[in-house]
UniProtKB/TrEMBL annotation, chains A, B, C, D:
InterPro entries xref list: ADH-like_C, ADH-like_N, ADH_Zn_CS, ER, GroES-like_sf, NAD(P)-bd_dom_sf
Annotated family: Belongs to the zinc-containing alcohol dehydrogenase family.
GO MF annotation: an example: oxidoreductase activity, acting on the CH-OH group of donors, NAD or NADP as acceptor
Domain of life: Bacteria
Essential cofactor(s): Zn(2+)
Alphabetically ordered keywords of this record: Metal-binding, Oxidoreductase, Zinc
Designated name of the protein: Threonine dehydrogenase
CDD domains in UniProt: NADP_ADH
Species of provenance: Pseudomonas peli
Length: 359, 359, 359, 359
């Protein structure tokens, strides 16, 4: 049991399956045997070299699995227990975490903040696209999975549900709100579901792929707009009688979606941004009402921790939302290069792929 | 009593004193005899033609005066009573006001939102740089002034205190926060005072004029930085041990101050923007942590209404803050063109001028 | 058109239909011809003399109707337009309203607060159980009804939806919360629907009437408990593994429901109270953790105003919630005494009755 | 170095100094050599047997000291470093902590909540009235003290500043608020200081001891009322023109102070409760407006953790508040029985005593 397979970053354009030692388990760690994981859009950025990580690092940050071994200080769990952990695995001891920003957890030996510091799997430590993953600060990060739920049902909790719902939460939605969501990829679809869960009564979603707009309706969208067919800014302003939306959620990471989100926003409204941008952003003066529109622009990074995961699992268990339609494909870990190929090119209507190391 | 003097916008570059009829008083109005008013930076934008208003409009939005005549529906006040009204005079009946955004009050015959719609004096209706001003929706906008306070003591309430404090309020300051305020003109100085009132324990202020930095210390600044002498971004990061500030308040309206505010912000921090911008704004990718820094950018327009004014007057009456140092000059209304000349060119250490129509 | 029928309070135990003059319309008023109204539990308190009102006052505070005549200052509406108004009709000019507490609107000639002051219909002015009602401060209180909705569909907006949803809003529900709602009368049922709209994933409701528990399931309840069959406190603690609920909503107004709500609450949880109490309340020391449990007890009075009504109408129009099952009976205004008889004694499975003055 | 002196609970009425082994240091612990500690009102409850703890437990929860030995997993600190820790020492890994309620931290092997579970020193583990204390979960709880500050200056941070400020924070104070604080013992005085730090412009404090009312003025009180001389409810309603206060802070733990706090509260206001009660509480119906007054009753338990301590130390370092007047007496640890005698009987104008194990 001393070696395992893991998908690692070799160089820009190459993620490959290699053999690696199974890591030793420190007192605050847990070793988890991965039963299901998945590929995220961020992983594709890593593959392309657009987001730099260390060569040889195991990629992936969405674990479902079984506790193989617990660190000596970790209490209240047992080996053999089925768990997930968030994509973001904070220490929860840091100044940032105690201040309410655990995703920006800066560890312990500095001032306590590190941008995106809570994101460790597949970023600063080995990730989940492997047979085993070492979960740091396991006491705060392991979330038990109830027996009645399948791996696929909880596979979205570690990242896209947490991120998408965070977008809706940051949008400060009130009952009766009109909300627009720009882009309906996996995270945008979760933001749509989140907006419905928070009480939005009119949810307008925008994408260019009809299949995604169809799924959006299942997630709670009331109105779907295909940007290939209409001027979405004009249409949303028309639909709201010129008033604009109470909140706009950006779920892609482009200047165009960011800007459209601002242009459809009522004075006093909130632009909740989830996208990972790769360029400077421009705020157009007129849409910003010269800074006098009581606008709020809020960015969110996926909340982690066992309490967040517990709540998301509760939502799945309640049947409030069914993300089953999001897992469109399944691969063995051995075939992960093919899975990346499919996912990176958005072929075959792929939304999320389930990766099974031991299937 | 049928005619009055008023400073009106003639054309770009010209504001002049003219004779105008004293307006008739509708059932929900109040006519106020101005005893003291002042000039705002926004008025200078109007003078220069940078912010368009109708030719012939009376300028000014900061009234202190005496109720001359009350509309038939206005109750609980009496003629001869000393009052102020906010620079922003909402209807309070609109959808926007009831939704919590009275500064974006859209009146009544539309969907209920109008960007900056609550700002009427010297913008969409005749303003306060005159012998008399008609206060609309007087029931919601007239705030009595206690006997013990001078005109000068409450002159800052209608606009700069309300705006500056709103910048501190929107910054979501917590006890023990480190806050940076960029620019220490009248509004920036009020933001500094507001940050102290909310419990910031380290307030770092930035300006290029030593006199203003001196006054900032009286307002609550702990550390003053002159941008002519230091690289303020580098210095603030140094002062915070690389952590950044909890909140940064922008009080000028330039790309450079906006950008510096973002660059010194901790992950999870709030950029509270008060400036009136005149160009598109650029959000630099790195400072924005690609949209993953849990940052918040919040803009605020001066809150108005009698309750807001009552609270600000309470602060003045409590002696918590003394804005006496801000009124550096006094002019008769007859000399308002000279006052504009001084104020627009920031001559003679001017901060705010008191304009006295009947002195 | 000078006289109308109205149900007035005669003396404890007697509400009767009498003829009254149709009131004159002041500049800020609107006269509304009632097409549908209903009876509230509070009206029964009035009938019984438990809540004192002036003899001769017209009762009722839930109007659906047609604008018959508009005051001269009311803009953006037209006569013949179909509207509702909230049970609570604030002035929106008062200090209390501007401070965020419009239900406690104190009018204008005092310090600005009056407990329950926003509740005027059938309390301090003539109410809605009549052929016509005069809506004060109509500019802020008239909410247009879209053509596609029936009177019955919007009849719950003025009071029970607004109250029940307010209970859920005040409970500070987060996605994934476990919420208990005590009592499933009309307001409790709306609180259940509100809890679902805010993202609660496990909603446990308590009542003693099976029919109401059945309807609660349609409104979003996941678990229903009949207090005649189980010890509800014990059962809820069991269901939550001893943790308690994140929020408990009290929707009746008794010591027993208030106390049970506290006993099932987690440390840090919120007790959101909607009931109208008629006795002092006791907070048990142990359930209150001696004041060290980070508990919150929050009371809410039905929010009013056209913006609130607009949002509730949006929820109805979206199909998110269907309150159709709540209107169990219909009466002509002529038969209102019989309607009171039925409603006060909770006969025949009554939940809400539709009263039709012109049917 | 294997034995130390410690003040332990023997039986009701007896706390005595005994010899105990210095505890071993686990991987996540730190051993701190106490240089200064103090006695809290809660300790007197323990002494009297009113709050039960295990016989032989070391009492005290307010540590200032030097790191003697660090656990193997604790990073970013060094032995010899001067630190404090909060009276409340959460694990920060628990569900409760991640949910925002670290004072109710339930540890790890249960559902995650335990009422007051974060309070461990002198409650569930050995406390600080000893030569050494073992700090659990040291990574999240040790807060470095800057060189320029004396022990006495930071001695109030672990408990009374954190508690008193929490009372002001929970009161949701806005700039310009009128706030009443009931009782001006050490925690009430800190609540007064906290109310000022949050922007209250009129702070009315109530006590029966003139010396405390004097100190209250230094802490920020604008108006002091001696309940032996005036009817404080009547007087506060008079001072506010019948409106009531925006927030009332209860800082004692009696029915009478709780009730008075409610009676002076405006509709919509917040009663922030800090007291440790020893009886059931009664909410009077009229003062509660039958549950329709939009009232909020919020209890708070002292927030802990290194981030909270860091912020409080910042406040001390800024000079915003000077709690120097609160330390009225000093004792060697050897004389702690005498210190309890003085403190429990409130003799000689005592507010807080500094206890020095090594002086």
């Amino acid at each position: 049991m001393s070696m395992m397979k893991a998908a690692v970053f070799i160089e820009p354009g190459r993620i490959e399956l290699v053999d690696k030692p199974i890591p030793p388990v420190g007192p605050n760690d847990a070793l988890v045997r991965i039963t299901t994981t998945t590929i995220c859009g961020t992983d594709v950025h890593i593959l392309k070299g657009e987001y730099p990580v260390a060569k040889g690092l195991t990629i992936g940050h969405e674990p479902v699995g079984i506790i193989e071994k617990l660190g000596s200080n970790v209490q209240g769990y047992h080996e053999g227990q089925r768990v997930i952990a968030g994509a973001i695995c904070p220490s929860f001891s840091s100044y940032a975490s105690q201040d309410g920003y655990s995703s920006q957890d800066g560890g312990c030996s500095c001032h306590g903040y590190k941008p995106m510091g809570g994101w460790r799997f597949g970023n600063s430590i080995d990730g989940t696209q492997a047979e085993y993953v070492l979960v740091p600060d396991a006491q705060g990060n392991l979330a038990p999975v109830p027996d009645g739920l399948t791996d696929e049902q909880v596979l979205m909790c570690p990242d896209i549900m947490s991120t998408g719902f965070a977008g809706a939460e940051a949008a400060n939605i009130k009952i009766g709100d009109v909300v627009a969501v720009f882009a309906q990829g996996p995270i945008g679809l979760c933001a749509t579901a989140g907006a419905k869960l928070r009480g939005a009564s009119t949810i307008i979603v925008v994408d260019g792929v009809e299949q995604r707009l169809q799924i959006a309706r299942q997630m709670g969208a009331d109105i779907t707009l295909n940007f290939n067919q209409v001027d979405v800014v004009e249409e949303i302003l028309h639909l709201t009688g010129g008033r604009g939306v109470d909140a706009a959620i950006e779920a892609l990471g482009l200047q165009s979606t960011f800007e459209s989100a601002l242009r459809v926003l009522k004075p006093g409204g909130t632009l909740s941004s989830l996208g990972v941008y790769s360029t400077d952003l421009v705020i157009p003066l007129a849409a910003f009402h010269a800074g006098l529109g009581d606008h709020k622009i809020i960015t969110s990074l996926c909340p982690g921790g066992k309490e967040r995961m517990r709540r998301l699992i509760n939502v799945v268990a309640s049947g409030r939302v069914d993300f089953g339609a999001l897992v469109t494909h399944q691969y063995a870990l051995d075939d992960i290069v093919a899975a990346y190929e499919l996912f990176a090119h958005q072929r075959d209507g792929v939304l999320k792929v389930a990766i099974k190391p031991f299937a």
